[in-house]
Amino acid sequence: MGNRNSSGRTSRATAVFTSCCKCRTYSLDGPDVGRGHDGAAVQPTTSGETNELQPVAPRSEESVANQPPTNNTHENLPNSESPEMSRIRLPRPPRRPVDEAGKAGLKVNLIDILIAENGKDHHTFDYEMMERPVDANLVVRRGQPFHLLLNLNRKFDPAKDAVSLIFTVADAKMPSPSNGTTIAIPLLNDNSSSLPAGGWWARLVASSELSIKVQVCTMATSVVGVWKLDVDTKFIPTGSALSYSLPSRIYLLFNPWCREDLVYMEDEEWKKEYVMADSGLIWRGSHNRMRPCAWNFAQFEKDILECCVYLLSNVGKLTIAGRADPIRVVRAISAAVNSSDDNGVLVGNWSNDYSGGREPTKWQGSMLILQKYWATKAPVKFGQCWVFSGVTTTVCRALGIPTRSITNFSSAHDTHGGLTIDTFIGDDGKVVEELNSDSIWNFHVWNEVWMQRPDLEPGNYGGWQAIDATPQEESDGVYRCGPTSVAAVKRGEVKKAFDTAFHFAEVNADKVYWKFKGTGQPLKLIDKRTDEIGLSISTKAVGKFQREDVTDHYKHKDNSAEEREVVLKALRQCGHLYSRYYLNEALEDVRFDFQLRDDIVIGQPFSAVVNVANRNRGKDYSVEVTLRVDSVLYTGKLKSVIKKQVFQRTIKAGTAQNITLPVSYAEYAPELSDQCAFNIACLANVKETEFEFFSQDDFRVRKPDIAIKAPKEVPLGEQFDVTVSLINPLPIQLNGAKFVIEGAGLGTPYKISVDKVAPGKEARAEVKMTAAKAGQKTVSAKFYSKELNDVDGYLNLDVIDNTA
Q1: Among 660, 636, 631, which Cα is nearest to 647's?
Q2: Could you tell me the pTM of the whole model?
């Protein structure tokens, strides 16, 4: 778009053209100046008349006759012209407005959005839309100055020329200054004594013959999203006015570098990690077998920022004013990333039937998910918690909100809001599924976002806030969760907004076991566990690919006096009585110690072991022990029984015995879940005393690692070799095997087939990759086959720009 007549705004004057019906020349009436149809400036009237072309009276014969004659009517005509042609008056274009010095009115020809300068100052240089050779858009952060270069038709005269910048939210249906969707700011001189505190402003910083450089600052509470820019110019002595529209758009983001922004983060290394890093780690597995998985967040890639802005306005249904508030924004994101009650990004699937979509374990990053969603505007199939979290990290970082993925091992899902996880056990030691609505997931992944919480103050509730896009429970009628102040969770203040009770139960609920003897029979409380929920809460460490434990952010040490006090405080707030936890804890002679064998690679056998010790040196005891192994989904739901055995033993006085249940690969392979997770349970009773013992634990066989070889340093823009390999750990052949290799900023993913892999043999693939951006990058690889899948690995390397 270019210059337009300023009559598009209410303050613009109206132009009246008058013409001669014979010679088609034009004159202009009125003191103010607008623009003609051909782009030349014209003078509008101030009489309030409507735009109307009115003819001027033709000149009389007398007036023509009174003109002085020429010496030779024909001498200045070309030879090809006849005398008759000299009587035809050629049309004249409308006159351009002129100022007192005879120069044209000030016109903006072009705006240079100074991509390199602004991208560096605002840490937005990596956004793909800033790197486009054509049709680039400016990406800047709110509350921080940026620069524009206005190319003009003549030299700017600050004494006679007035310039205003008009910013408008692009999708505002009725833009208005009252709701912050239209901002009009006059250009101030460089030597202005004061600038508006905390408001929008623009000032002249440099001037040349045909251009001016302008510094613009937005408010730290401005609406985040897409803005349009118009520049109005006016010649003060005559009132002539023109307007120029920037054809591209300006994307305004949250600003962790601005102290006045609620998402301000002081530590520079934290900002590099939680805003700028485009790859990272997300932990999966179980508390005794934690597994880091590389994830490409890719927040700067093609279509990602456009998609994120679309989610806020079209899916999250945020009002334009709501897009200025990071608290409301992240709550909307937690709803928009899932599709349970809207047209969100991901369809959740925990059924093990992934027909019609992609298995959650096959995603390696957010880019393909968001790009597919942006192209189709339809939910992408399928996701589970770590996929929801990875996409949420991408969306929040793209919008400028510091974000990280958090994994909670042994994560409780409290469905009744009682802050306890109740499990009912039958006589055979099997969990009575129909009575259980609560569950414990081997792991669950959510997000933390960094911001202040003025809505909760006083009380220092700012800092990390938990949000969760995995659709578990409705919050105010929508599948969303958070933001929850992590500080409030640790204090047990479960009434604080939003969804604090749910997050508290995830990390600090008590496990309570009931003996179920049949309908109508009284329940017997057989055990409570106060230290088995919320284990090894993990995230990626700042600046390194290692695990950081953040458990102490969410709670005090399990079973400490402080932790028990907080739990009691929380239980009282939700209305449940603590008396249900009292146990008949008689001193028993027989003690049971349930043990697991760790670090078992898939394909190897494993055993469940319970040690039974008789501390009485004068009496034997008879015990019955039931050991069972079930395959489970990572949500904690049982999939199928793998093996179960009942043991009868007599424990001699003062002795101990190990009771062992061995499980071979042939036994567990047919029932293996995609996370290779098991639930191993022990139900025991002492016949002489009727003492009962129950314990269960999660167990996971470890999948092999993919070895990745590549140079530690690679030149920017040059190809380099990447080799991936894996040893088949199974006692059977792998069929239909393939590797998928990718990395943010390293080109499109590679899919390499390696066909069959014999037991103990190596699968290998080699590719050539090219780094498009400098800095630390991550190569990630996945391995799939019919018999073994969801195997991954990653390698960090440095891309060096030798031209810098």
Answers
A1: 660
A2: 0.76
